Structures are given as C-alpha cells and as structure tokens.
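In this supplementary section we document a worked example of the pipeline. Step one takes a protein sequence of length 735 as its only input; no multiple sequence alignment statistics are reported here. Step two produces a three-dimensional model, which step three serialises into structure tokens for compact storage. The input and output of this example are shown verbatim.
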Amino acid sequence: MYTTLARRVVRHPWWTIGAWLVAAAVVGFFGPGLSASGDQAEFLPSHYESVQAGKAQKAAFAQSGAGSAATFVVQRRDGAALTGADQQLVEQAAGQLRDRAIPHVTEVQAGRQTVSENGLVQLIQVTVDGTQSDPGTQEAGRALRAATEPMFANTDLKAGMTGDVGIVIDAEDAFASAEQVIALATVGLIIVLQLLIFRSPVAALLPMVTIGLLVFVSVKLIGIAQRIFSLTAEQSVTVWVTVVLFGVGTDYILFLLFRYREQLRGGDDPRTALIHATARVAKVITSAGAAIVIAFSTLAFSSFGSFKAQGPALAIAVVATVVTALTLIPAIVSLLGPKVFWPSKSWQRQPRARASTKLSNLVVDRAGVLAAAAVVVLALLSLGALRFQASYDYNAGLPQDTESAIALKDLQRGFPVGALNPSSALLVSDTGQPLEETAVDAFRSRLAGVEGVGQAGPAAYSPDRTVARISVLLDHESGSPEAVDTVADVLRPTAHEAAPAGTHALVGGPTATFADIRSAVNRDYSVVFPLAAALTALVLLALLRSIVAAVLLMVLVGLSYLATLGTSVLVMQEGLGKAGIIFNVPIFMYLFVVAIGTDYNILMVDRLRDETREGHSPREAARLAIRHTGPTAVAAGVILAGTFSSLLLAGVALLAEMGFAVAAGILISALLVSSLLVPALMVLMGRGFWWPARLTAVQRPQPVAVTDPASPPEPVVGGPVAETAVGSGDVGNLR
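The serialised model returned by step three reads:
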C-alpha cells in the first residue's frame, strides 16, 4: 500500500500538487474561521453549580447588573487622596459615558458609593449586555476606553479599565501579538536548524512553503468541524495549531529527507530513491501520526468544553500533516530531485558517523549502567511532581503591563483583593413565594462568618423577591488556590446548609467557576489519562506485535511524563516562585509527551526490529539502530523542542508554561529515552524484548537495476542492512 502510494505521488508530482491546490482553494472558500473564547465559564457543562447560578441570576436580575463588567479605576496621578472636585469630575465622566449611548452598554454608575474608604480610588462601574466572548461586548469595551481616555487627559486624574471586559480585550490582544511573535520565531528557528542539518537553503525553505499552506487548510478544516459539532475552542487554539503543524510537520519532512539522502548515498537513482524513501517512512509517519491523533482525540471524552474542542482541533491538524507528508512533500521533492540538498554535496558520500558510532558502542557496551542511570535520573526528576499545585488564575497569566492588569493593581490600593470579582450567593425560593427578609439576613450572617470570607454585602432582591443575591468578598484573589478552596470546601457547603426550608442556595461568580473547572478537569484527568495510554498501547501492539515492547515503551512514556511534570514544577514553582502551574498544562503536557514521545520510540524500535529481522544479534541491532536512526531522532527532537520553546517569547504565562513543559518533555523523550534507554533495554533483554513475536532473519532480494528512468521498478522496502530504516548520519555531522 505504502509503495503504491509512493510510486503514484513520485511519478505524478504535478497531479498531486494540483489536487492539493484545488483542495486548498475549496476549503479556503467554504471553510469558516475559528470560533474561540477566553471566557472559561462558557466551557463548563450546564449541571455545574456556577453555571446554574449564572442562569438564575440572569433570569432574576435581567435589568440589574446582568452581563459583563467594565470597571474604570480612577486615581490621582500624584497618588494622593481624591478631592471633592476630583470626585465630581469622575461623576461627570460617568455621565458623559452614559449620554454617549454606546451600543451594548446598559448601565454606568459612579458616585460616593464607589469611592474607597481611604479615598485613594474611585470606580466607574459599567455593565455591558453580553458575555465576555461576544463581539459586541468587546466592541463596547474598546469604545469605552476610547471615549474615557480624553476625559482625563489634561487633569490630575488617570483612569484604567479592568474587569471582565477589559481583561478579555487585553487577552485577545495579547494572544494576537503572541501569534505573530511565535510564528516569526518558529519560522526563523526551523530555517536555522534545517540549514545546520542539511546545509541547504532549499531544504530549509521546504517546510515554510508546504506547512504555510497546511496551516491555512488546517485552520479552515477545524472551523468546519467546529461548526458541525457546535464547538468553541480556547483563544490559544491558533497558536497551538501553528506550533504543532510547524513542529510535527518539519519532523516528518526531516524523516523523509534523511531517508532520501541515505538512499541516494546507497546508489539509487533519484526517482527510485524517493519512492523507496517515501514508502519506508510512510509506515513510521502513519503509525506516529496515529498515536498523536488518538491521544488528542481522547479529549473529545472530556466534560470541560475547552478540552473537548482543543483536542479534536489538534487531531485534525495532525491528520492533515500526515497526509501532507505522504503526498505533497514527496511530490515537491520529486520535482527538485537531489537539488533539494543544494548546494551541499553530502548526499553523494557516506558520512563518517564518528559521534554516533562512539555513542552506539557506549550504549551497547555499558547498557546496564546507562539504563540504570537513565531510570534514576527520570525517577529523581519525577519527585518534583509531588509538589505540583494547579493555578486557575488566568488573569495572572496575561502580560502584567496591560491596562487591565495595571488597573487591577491600582484598584487594590483602595479595595479588598476580591472586590473586582466577588462571588455571588443566591437564595432562591422553591415555592414561588417571596423570601422573608429575616431569613435572608440570617443566611447572609452565616456566610459572613465563613473562614476566608472578608465581607458579605447586603442582599439585593429580584423584582418579585423570590431571589436574593448576596455579594461575597473573599480574602484572597479570585483565581488563587486559597480562594478556590474556600468556595469549594467551605462557602458552598455552608450556603447549602444555611438555606431556610423551602429555598435552595447557589454560589456563583468567578471563583465558583474556577472551583467547578477544577472538578471538571480532575474528572477529565481520570478519563483522558488512562484512555490515551490504552489507545496508544494498542497502536504499539498493532505495529510491533510485541506485548513486552509495547508495555515497556508505555512505562517509559509514563516515566517521561512524570519527569517532565517534575521538571516543570522545579523550574516554575520552586525556581520562579509561581504559586502554581496553569491547570490545563498537565493534561496537554501528558498528551504531547505520550504522543510525540511515542513518535520517537516508534522511530527507534522500528529500526531495531528491522535490524533484528536482518539477522543481527540484539547487540549489533542496537549498535546499527543508534548509528543510523539516533541522529534523526535527535535532530527531530531538537527541532520540535525548539518550536515549542518559541512559546516562551509569547508574553503569556499559559503559553510560556506549556512551551517549556512540552519542550522539556520532547527533549527527555528524544535524547534520553528513545536514543539511549530503549536500545539499552533491548540489549539487556535480547530477543525477549519482542515476546511473543519471533523475529527471524529474512532474505531480501536485491533491487533490480533501473534501465528505464521513466519507469523505475518498485523498490524493495527493507533492502540491505544499511538501508532499512529512517535516518542515517552522525549526530555530530549531519551533513
């Protein structure tokens, strides 16, 4: 099958490229844009209490404060207390905003009640009638900022907008800026690394042209899937798609070019060499891509909507990458021939392979010592995972030089830390009868006495007095672990217990949302982790036909994940002093390490198996596999880790944390596990590594010499020993 596909693509490159361009035009014309949101509450299923509280509050207080909040924090430029004239100016500004009748703005409030007790800060509280992700909400926020700026331009006062609206606008701008920075950094890094590996500008530019088209097509395909299945992804989805496509796509191009160069060095004519190379890497790319797609697809079983949409989106991108690697890339290389390596002539001579030869001898001769040392290193790094602490504070993950972040800090000069995002406790009548004020006051008093609650405000009643809303200020920032624990473990149980007969209590607000997200994510961990591991193990079993090898590889992948998580904790929490790691980092880290780590394991084990089937002893098979495939795994790992490292430049903590964690996991998988530990274990276990399969030596016919270049014979996949697997060369001399 793979040889037939390779022959057709290589013999008919223009047809292949033309089909790709037509498909891209059709998808581009009909495909919608991505649907993304930064409001985490939108990703929760409806049965969670914070969602129910939000619906109840919107229904009961439809004309009072429903929607998203834009809060202007006003203070003197000299930091002194506000004067009477200053407060009057603030109220005038609020009136002007009210008179402008900005679309979607339903309420503007400012007065003595919005002045802090110490007089340092006054608020202008604006309500916008939409969710954070609604385009109208963001348009209203930008209009409010533009209208307010000149009002205080030549005065002693300054104002900054924060709150839901301000934060989501700054988040959108931050992610848009991050996309540009990451795209430029990724492209530049790949070009430099490809130049270092192949010494060819043609090979360096090949990923830019093909993957650039692939990004466009993939984004449109994801948009179509979102529309069909009514999914909304997180704001960072475009960043992830770009990084994954450039990283994984370049890896697969690397697999093909390494193999193509090896075949040319072995004496094949260019077309036969490319057919053979494409057919041989197709099995590895398909198996590796299947592992990634399956791992990401398991997120479709998540309850948290962000995971449910993000995983399939990345899976679609990887499927498109595999198709590209097996069709478009070989077609373009078929037209270029050996010129793809221009001006380098390294494809005409065999490499010395000194470094990889020394490494292979070391691993084979000291297999027990190296395997034990590698396991000890992984185990020690894994200990850091015991100190993992999840953070749900998305705001802290945004750049701290934005207007909303600065205004939030300024607000804390005069108001409690939880004032911007208070929790809401709703007391709802079950009978439809009006609530008794004394019962509501008793309920409020119980909430005020909860440890971790700074203040429980007076009750606000719905028009029919069947719902009472109490604003609860916490002692900690709304997204902090302490605040989430307070709501989940103390405030909610107290509210439920204190609700009078004939009523029920609901606790909502940002912190309650974070508490529900924690519950949803923990549930998803318990489903996604074992499901992804089991399905990946099935891929390995189907490919290797070996229970022992599949189980060992999965154990190593699990150990790699724990080592990666431990490393991230040691660097971010212990080294940088962060309170915690953003909550969705571990699950995506796990999927990347499982899927991409399996990629490199497949690359190495496939070579080990081929060398064993060629009749080599386990020691010699490992020696040849490390020499020929080790450089490919190392180069691919460095490129992929480099692309994820570009996320460190994004200026967004979520992306930076994920970039570091995934890059570390890839390097651990490629350099330590796949290149050293896997072949060392095969040496130690011998042929038992392949149990219950029995790999016997096979006699391979030599390829028939090509007499008609226009009609080359079908290449023999798995020919001579030196030409049986992906990659050849030296880690120290990849030219």
